[in-house]
């Protein structure tokens, strides 16, 4: 039942969009007369039902982490990771129960996480931007998108506020592309599927129906979709449709963990929760692939 409801997520989001639209029109005093003729209780019930159903997500049975190859090479740091807690991103939305975000360690030239400026930093200023992304397991590409633009970082106070309020809400209502930006989805031979998200504009080098092996290049790290700075978001699912998928735990076989913490992420480097996937890096932890 959960999966059937979740599969129709775009439909359930329509009443939520209606509620947001009516709220804005109400503030502007521009609600159409035909809408005013509908009993307010009916509108509230429809909006509330849509919000309730859009929050229903599939759950996978308890399982051991699936062993994958790392999607990157070199030195990286993890955040919003299942090595810290589950759900790693605070939600099961779009199958991202055990998703992980990774970025390359900061250099002296890397922009600050938050700075005083009118505009956010350009994505080209970050070391992760343009780094190659590789397939974690053999399978077939089922979906790609590479036309979203790389936007500036959300590293000013006003940009962060915008991202956490209006932008976040609009992207959620905008669907998968608005959230994950440029992406590749690979359906693996074992039945699992992986999402590689926030890729650089025009960088995707595979097409739908193409077969890939572990280690084959897919694209490059970018700053598209719901992102604050260039990084790779990757997660594993039990099927290739994120709207109908349950998130799965994974671990990377070809990484070393030297025990270092990325200084710019030190404030989120805490002891893992009891349900964490301990074979994955925790928040702020550097790993080498």
Number of domains: 2
- Classify the helix fraction into a percent range: 10-25%
Tell me the series of helices and strands, N- to C-terminal.
HHHHEEEEEHHEEEEEEEE
Radius of gyration: 20 Å
Provide a quick synopsis of the model.
The chain has 289 residues and is of the alpha+beta class.
What does this structure look like?
It is a single chain. This protein is an alpha+beta fold and 289 residues long. The protein folds into two domains: 2-54; 66-288, Glucose Permease (Domain IIA) (Distorted Sandwich). It has helices spanning 2-7, 9-28, 33-36, 40-54, 157-174, 176-180, and strands at 66-68, 75-79, 100-103, 132-134, 139-145, 182-188, 193-199, 211-212, 217-220, 232-237, 247-248, 250-252, 286-288. A hairpin with a 4-residue loop joins strand 6 (182-188) and strand 7 (193-199). It is globular, with a radius of gyration of 20 Å. The chain starts with a helix and ends with a strand. The mean pLDDT is 91. Pfam families: Peptidase_M23.
Main attributes of the structure:
2 domains; 289 residues; Glucose Permease (Domain IIA); alpha+beta; 6 helices; 19% strand
Write the layout of secondary structure elements.
Elements: H1 2-7, H2 9-28, H3 33-36, H4 40-54, E1 66-68, E2 75-79, E3 100-103, E4 132-134, E5 139-145, H5 157-174, H6 176-180, E6 182-188, E7 193-199, E8 211-212, E9 217-220, E10 232-237, E11 247-248, E12 250-252, E13 286-288
Parallel strand pairs: 1-12
Antiparallel strand pairs: 2-3, 2-13, 3-10, 4-9, 5-6, 5-8, 6-7, 7-10, 10-11
Organism: Nesterenkonia halotolerans
Pfam families: Peptidase_M23 (PF01551)
Transmembrane segments: 12-31
């Amino acid at each position: 039942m959960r999966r059937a409801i979740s599969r129709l997520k775009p439909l359930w989001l329509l009443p939520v969009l209606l509620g947001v639209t009516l709220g804005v029109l109400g503030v502007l005093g521009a609600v159409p007369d035909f809408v005013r003729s509908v009993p307010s209780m009916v509108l509230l019930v429809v909006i509330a039902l849509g919000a309730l159903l859009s929050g229903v997500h599939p759950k996978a049975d308890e399982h051991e982490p699936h062993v994958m190859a790392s999607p990157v090479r070199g030195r990286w740091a993890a955040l919003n990771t299942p090595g810290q807690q589950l759900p790693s991103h605070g939600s099961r939305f779009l199958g991202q129960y055990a998703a992980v975000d990774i970025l390359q360690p900061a250099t002296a030239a890397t922009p600050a996480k938050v700075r005083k400026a009118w505009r956010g930093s350009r994505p080209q200023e970050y070391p992760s931007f343009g780094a190659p992304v590789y397939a974690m397991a053999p399978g077939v590409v089922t979906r790609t998108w590479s036309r979203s633009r790389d936007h500036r970082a959300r590293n000013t106070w006003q940009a962060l506020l915008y991202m956490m309020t209006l932008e976040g809400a609009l992207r959620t209502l905008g669907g998968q592309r608005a959230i994950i930006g440029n992406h590749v989805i690979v359906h693996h031979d074992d039945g699992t599927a992986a999402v590689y998200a926030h890729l650089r504009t025009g960088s995707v080098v595979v097409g739908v129906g193409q077969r890939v092996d572990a280690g084959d290049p897919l694209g490059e790290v970018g700053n598209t979709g719901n992102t604050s700075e260039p990084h790779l978001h990757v997660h594993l699912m039990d099927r290739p449709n994120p709207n109908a998928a349950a998130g799965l735990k994974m671990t990377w076989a070809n990484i070393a963990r030297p025990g270092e913490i990325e200084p710019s992420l030190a404030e989120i480097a805490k002891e893992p929760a009891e349900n964490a996937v301990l074979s994955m890096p925790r928040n702020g932890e550097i790993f080498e692939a």
